[in-house]
Design brief:
The protein has 254 residues and is of the alpha/beta class. It has one domain (2-246): Phosphoenolpyruvate-binding domains (TIM Barrel), CATH 3.20.20. It is 43% helix and 14% strand. The chain is built from ten helices and eleven strands. It has helices at 9-17, 27-33, 44-54, 73-86, 104-117, 137-150, 164-174, 188-194, 204-221, 233-237, and strands at residues 2-3, 5-6, 23-25, 61-64, 90-94, 96-97, 100-101, 122-126, 155-157, 178-181, 198-200. The strands form two sheets. The chain has a nine-stranded parallel sheet. α4 runs parallel beside α5, α5 runs parallel beside α6 (137-150) and α6 runs parallel beside α7 (164-174).
Amino acid sequence: MLLPCAWDHASAAALARAGFAAVGTTSLGVAAAAGKPDAGRATLEETVALARSIASLDVPVTVDIEDGFRPDPGRVADLVAELAALGVAGVNLEDGRGTALAGVQAQTRLIGVVKRRVPEVFLNARTDAFWLGLPDAPALAPVRARAYADAGADGVFVPGANTERDIETLVTGTGVPLNVLVQPELPVRRLAELGVARISYGSLLFRAALHAAVTTARELAAGGPVRPGIPSYEEVEALHRYGRDTGTGSPGPR
């Protein structure tokens, strides 16, 4: 499954309308759009507001909740229960804590508490061993991914894993669906052949949107024309009406 990640209602609705089978959120996009740091427990309010705004789309929505935003597992479970009540289908829950990883026992306890409280939500447990550039990541990530699966995670997310050998090890060793980031080193078709179940776009679309906005502004300032393909005012204005009650969804990339 290809999972594009949105940062506001318009981007989520546009992706759902384009035919993608599900939509996620990008914590970087949410944080940067709000003028706040990513992965700093600074965007709880914005994350819940976005979930409330997009949960009614006619595709499943999964929300990046960073490390849970709260230090206590019970309160993280409360947050996931709140998101489930809004209609959210899944969450990402990461073990990164700044430049280090949470202890395995603490993270598995967190996952267990959340799954016991909200079993219906797909919990995608993320390990940041590769993401943080830890030298022992190839050995560390599979062990953590398996521990999280054993604790009740429905899937594991390993951003930064980008070699066939590492990905094959994760696919065969965790026992649950593997999620990786879309990446230039391995095309989508090859990732699927290796057994990857979910390919997330992460913050790529948000960063691409910033690039497109600045590029367009510079081109117009230099006297260039407006490039074709930009949505019209009317098309964008209509996105606020896109949701389950419109019956406008369609099967898309999987």
